[in-house]
């Protein structure tokens, strides 16, 4: 699972066009606006084949919080596999 964090970092970095995405700095503080946020969520859903509900969007605010959400979503799939 440790690769997921670096995959997310690369994905967010690509969308935001920033070289460095710190673990716990809010996306807002990095200058990532709501449109980029929507792109990030869509990319996460595509890459990991998960659905992020509107109510969960508030959790996608930092790299670490996004990672926690993705890991929570992937955990049930791992149990099934």
From TrEMBL:
Keyword Phosphoprotein carried by entry: yes
Cited SMART domains: PKS_PP (SM00823), PKS_PP_betabranch (SM01294)
Molecular function via GO: phosphopantetheine binding
Carrier domain ranges (all copies): 1-74
Keywords: Phosphopantetheine, Phosphoprotein
TM spans (from-to): none
Superkingdom in the source lineage: Bacteria
Name used for this protein in its record: Carrier domain-containing protein
């Amino acid at each position: 699972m440790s690769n997921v964090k670096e995959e997310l970092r690369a994905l967010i970095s690509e969308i935001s066009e920033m070289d460095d995405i710190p673990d716990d700095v809010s996306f807002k503080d990095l200058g990532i606006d709501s449109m980029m946020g929507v792109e990030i969520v869509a990319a996460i859903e595509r890459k990991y084949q998960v659905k992020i509900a509107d109510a969960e969007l508030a959790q996608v605010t930092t790299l670490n919080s996004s990672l926690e959400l993705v890991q929570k979503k992937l955990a049930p799939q791992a149990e099934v596999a």
